[in-house]
Amino acid sequence: MRALVVYESMFGNTRHVAEAVARGLGPADAVRTVPVTQAHEENLSGYDLVVVGGPTHAHGMSRESTRHGAAEQAEKPDSGLTLEPDAESEGVREWLDSLPSGGGRAAAFDTRIDLAAVLTGRAGKGIARKLRKHGFELVADPESFLVDKQSALEPGEEDRAEQWGRSLAQQVASGSEEVR
Ligand SMILES: Cc1cc2nc3c(=O)[nH]c(=O)nc-3n(C[C@H](O)[C@H](O)[C@H](O)COP(=O)(O)O)c2cc1C
Q1: Residue 2 in 3-state DSSP?
Q2: 29 CA from centroid of ligand 1 (Å)
Q3: How confident is the model at residue 179 (pLDDT cuts 50, 70, 90)?
Q4: Mean pLDDT along residues 76-85
Q5: By alpha-carbon position, which residue is closest to atom 6 of ligand 1?
Q6: Pfam families this protein is in (predicted)?
Q7: pLDDT tens-digit profile of 20-44?
Q8: Is 62 a pocket residue for ligand 1 (Cβ < 6 Å)?
Q9: Ligand 1 center to residue 27 CA distance, Å?
Q10: Which of 77, 98, 101, 134 is the most buried (most CB within 10 A)?
Q11: CA-to-CA dists, residue 22 to 79, 80, 122, 140, angstroms
């Protein structure tokens, strides 16, 4: 199985989760992980599974204004946050909007604060909706990976992400055609 993991990340959490999902999906020579700023160069039809993840901002996918807000947060003295390269470039929302209609199998995830989803919102739901709109069949419900209030991944979340990647690979291998 060939898989592509596309991620957006301001502070690194979603990148770490994306890398863990990729480890779970399969061997490194079969799974490619790219930041969303490089995703335009990918031919999605060349993959058996496309996994897309981003941080939850203002209850959904980031926008230019929220990415700017995140950059300002990171620049504050003692924030303890480091901005990812190209953090203020386009996010998964804009990339997904620019995709031609296609098809194939996909899954969505987000990172968000460790509180009830009804309070935090979940970017993964919006990502999943846009993937479906572009003709993708989702092989799993969107998943969230949790950070604490200081924007650090909660313990065990990378392991859970790797496990989620393994379960996605099994889902694709078993040829399930469950549409969500
Ligand atoms: C501008 C901004 C808005 C945010 N809004 C939300 C939110 O509505 N719900 C939530 O759960 N987390 C929110 N967060 C927290 C991020 O989802 C969380 O820190 C995430 O792990 C960041 O991922 P990253 O390190 O890959 O950028 C927000 C963070 C920023 C910077």
Answers
A1: coil
A2: 31
A3: very low
A4: 93
A5: 57
A6: Flavodoxin_5 (PF12724)
A7: 999 999 999 999 999 999 999 999 9
A8: no
A9: 30
A10: 134
A11: 29, 26, 21, 15
- What residues are paired with 35 via a beta bridge? 7
Per-chain mean pLDDT for the chain: 95
Torsion (CA) 27, 31, 33, 39 in degrees, nearest 10: 170
Q: Both tokens of residue 82?
A: 């480091």
Nearest-angstrom CA–CA distance, 58 and 49: 28
Show the domains of the chain with their CATH numbers: 3-173 (3.40.50.360)
Strand partners for 147: 113, 153
Distances, alpha carbon 138 to alpha carbons 6, 132, 144, in Å: 15, 7, 15
CA 47 – CA 42 distance, rounded (Å): 10
DSSP lists the bridge partners of residue 51 as 5, 107
Amino acid code (one letter) for 164: W
Q: How far apart are CA 153 and CA 178, in angstroms?
A: 31
Query: How confident is the model over 136-155, as pLDDT tens digits?
Result: 999 999 999 999 999 999 99
For 8-35, letters b (16+ CB in 10 Å) and e give bbbbbbbbbbbbbbbbbbbeeeebbbeb
**The predicted structure's pLDDT at residue 175:** 81
Residue 43 DSSP SS3? coil
Is 19's pLDDT higher than 70? yes
| The pLDDT of residue 180 is above 80 | no
